[in-house]
Amino acid sequence: MWEKLKALSQHPAAKACKKYFGDPVQLYAVFLIMTTMYYYHKEWAWLYTLIALPISYILMRFYDFVASKRFIGPVCYLLYMIAGLYVTFMITNLGEKSYPITFFVWFLTPQGVVEFSMLYTIAIYMLMIGFITSAVYYFAQVRYRMVMQFVIMLIPLSLYAKEGLHMPALLVILLLSSYFLLMVYCRQLKENKETRLLDGFHSGMSIALYVAAFSVIAAIIPKPQFQADREFIDNAMAYSTWSDVLMNAISMFTESTDNTGVVSNNARTLYYARSNEALRLRTQTFTYYLDNDSWNTIEEYDKPLLKYEEPLTYQPRALTQAILDAAAADPAFARKYNLSDLAGTTLPEQKLSELYIYYVWYNAAALPSPTRTQNVVNGTVYSIRRSASNALFTDLRGSGAVFRYYSDTYANNTAEAEVLSRLKHDSYAALLDEAGRILQTAHPEEAAILAQAGAEFQAAEQMQYTAMQHDYASPVVSRLAAEITQGLESDLEKAKAIERYFQDAGYVYDLSYAKEAGQNIDDFLNTSHTGVCYEYATAMTLMCRSIGLPARLAQGFSMNQPYEARFRSAGQDINTNFVIKMRDAHAFPEVYVAGYGWISFEPTVPAEEEEKTTAENLNVTRWGYVFLALTLLAIGIWAMLPYLREKQFRRKLPAMEPSAAAAAAFLRMRGALRLTDSVTVCELQQQSEPFFRDDKAFAELDALLYDPARSAAMTSAQLAGIYILWQTQRKAFEKAEKQRRKAQKKSEKA
Fold first, then answer.
1. Dist CA 458 CA 240 (whole Å)
2. Which of these, 656, 579, 556, 709, lies nearest to 231 by C-alpha position?
3. What H or E segment, with its residue span, contains residue 627?
């Protein structure tokens, strides 16, 4: 069998395959390219691989030429690199004419959320072929560094890791096998007394069998099942880390927001949290909407102007119970507001919930808090301010905060929802006023809650009026909201109907959808029916306002990722069950519901995949070319510096004093041969004998150095001529020696 296989290996076709496609260095580069292109365009990954085989062979031979030529090789490589980058640049320019985002943004954005671009993909293919083949060749043939080869292998792996994708098992096996094969190939084993090398065929077969066994075992052995903590990997591979952090931090202080600032693909962990429920957490509110599809703040409602005061809100259950108690105390009041059958009802208890937030990555200037936060309890958070909307801000950030809040879910309690369904927005202010007068004497504590609710309702109405003066007037929004809420009377019923509409009407959550310039909420509701949380929150906010319900857009985070974490902070053991990352940035509406107060809603339809996108930074591309030009300039200067210094030295040498010229020439000659400072002229002469023999010249050099007054036979100009001749013959000798060693090595291989 071995003889048959050996004979088969001598077949011309087998020899051709080995010659053109059997180089382990080339194969490793091809598998890296294949793995990368499978991520970008898996349908045609096989075609990219076939094309990469001949291209990589040609490039490897080109790199052989570059490595063998001391001067012309690097020049050719530099020209090749410039030409490749220029062609790639032209392709990306063509792509940007028909694609909504730049190539750099497309490259950083996960491919699962952007549309396919053939021109961009070709540009990536060219860049990967040039970079991967160069890097693999250099660290295999020029500098043997397998650690660097492993780092190169992490490049395609990181593409999959940053999106949480699984690389196909076959690609993993091929990649690891080719890496192992490259390690064996680059070991450069030599035969000695303890080691006997097999001939090429047998050693090749041994390596092939070993690699095959490694691949099979790695594929079939069952893997242990465990839940890994991916925080370090996610954070290390997150793109646009600093830009996302910066954009989120800045957005808390800006006057406006749009759909570029509420979604992020960043895996960076911001907070750990402990809570008994998933929550929508607000960091900022925005009051009015403009026709350019942006939200702006109104200073007296959204900006952090007021000092923190406790409590921030009242218990919604206590408000509703007070209304029922007023109905029980005054039958006429009960009949007037259709509460007679509910008078005297005792509502279920509404517990005060707690949310623990612990900062992980950076201390935000805004505290992510639930909508109906009652108070903040933590000794490490100081100087808390709040806006009229009760968004919380802090001047000095600590390790975390504890929020006590009333959950929005209580509004869905059967008994509570029944009461809320009887209350009408238009008569709510009068209801609160009458109920307060009824309870003023017998239940002053309930009357106080009614007064607090009345003040909050009046502030909400004033905000609604102010916002409507600035809002973009949209007949599309008004008409659709009226249709959805036709026949409904209570605030809660209307808000829930609008919240359900997007799910029932088949709206789509799609991060890859790019709105055209000039599009706003009308286009979302009329034509596209596609968007992200920003569009859904904007639509519901404006629709509620159009039917008279006070509403505002809240920006913050969606805390819905369960994650068990345990750590120590300030000497205490802390356990958490939720994690909040940059990509959990979220926008949602808050609506004022008569009988309850402000409630957050979730109109955004579920996405098929986890929210992932990348913040755009158009300046990065521009600065990238600047840095590239500066780098190439620095490399060119560094490469030309020895030549320029030598030219300058030769020009100055004839003008020096003979003794000074002798000292300068001696130092440069000694340095060219890498001799120590203790070397004398005689020793320099001995080292120069293989390529330069001139006893008289060295004697004169010695005299000028150690007894300049004894001899004036050699002028500085003559010394300069001898120096130039010495350098010329040295370089010729070193070149001849290099060629001789290369020929000897080649003959030994033959």
1. 43
2. 579
3. helix 618-652
Cβ-count burial of 223 within 10 angstroms (0-12 exposed, 13-18 middle, 19+ buried)? exposed
- pTM of the shown model: 0.54
539 within 8 A of 521, measured Cβ to Cβ:
yes
CB 590 within 8 A of CB 295: no
Q: What is the maximal distance between C-alpha atoms in the chain?
A: 132
In DSSP terms, 575 is beta-bridged to 566
Tokens of 342: 């509910």
- DSSP tag of 46: H
- How far is the C-alpha of 278 from the C-alpha of 715, rounded, in Å? 91
- 3-class SS at 30? helix
Residue 237 has pLDDT above 50, yes or no: no
Long-range contacts of 691-699 (CB under 8 A, 24+ apart): 691/729, 691/730, 691/732, 691/733, 692/725, 692/726, 692/729, 692/730, 694/722, 697/722
Write down the pLDDT at residue 211. 52
pLDDT band at residue 204, thresholds of 50, 70 and 90?
low
Sign of CA dihedral 46, 52, 57, 58: positive
> What totals of helices (H) and strands (E) does the chain contain, helices first?
27, 19
pLDDT in tens, 569-618: 666 777 888 988 878 889 999 999 999 999 999 999 887 644 333 333 33
What distance in Å separates the CA atoms of residue 592 and residue 491, rounded to the nearest whole number? 8
**Using CB atoms within 10 A of its CB, is residue 601 exposed (0-12), middle (13-18) or buried (19+)?**
buried
Radius of gyration of the chain (CA): 38
Residue with tokens 């291989």: 749
* Cis? peptide before 589, omega within 30° of 0: no
CA distance 81 to 75: 10
pLDDT digits (tens, 9 = 90+) for 542-578: 999 999 999 999 999 999 888 888 876 666 777 888 9
Report the amino acid identity of residue 303. K
Q: Does residue 47 have a pLDDT over 70?
A: yes
The three-point CA angle 113-119-121 to 5° equals 55
96-146 confidence digits (pLDDT tens) = 888 877 887 777 766 665 678 899 999 999 999 999 999 889 888 887 777
Joined tokens for residue 383: 């100087």
Count other Cβ atoms within 10 Å, centred on residue 204: 16
Token pair belonging to 297: 């703040």
DSSP 100: S
Question: 695-714 pLDDT, tens per residue?
Answer: 888 888 888 887 766 555 67
What is the DSSP annotation of 93-117? HHHHHSSSS-HHHHHHS-GGGS---
Beta carbons within 10 angstroms of residue 432's beta carbon: 27
| 315 contact partners, CB below 8 Å, separation of at least 6 | 350, 352, 374, 406, 449
Cα–Cα distance for residue pair 592/35, rounded to 1 Å: 53
Alpha carbon distance 557, 588 (integer Å): 9
The residues facing 393 across adjacent strands are 366, 385
Q: How confident is the model at residue 239 (pLDDT cuts 50, 70, 90)?
A: very low
Instruction: Please list the residues that pair with 282 across neighbouring strands.
Output: 369, 556
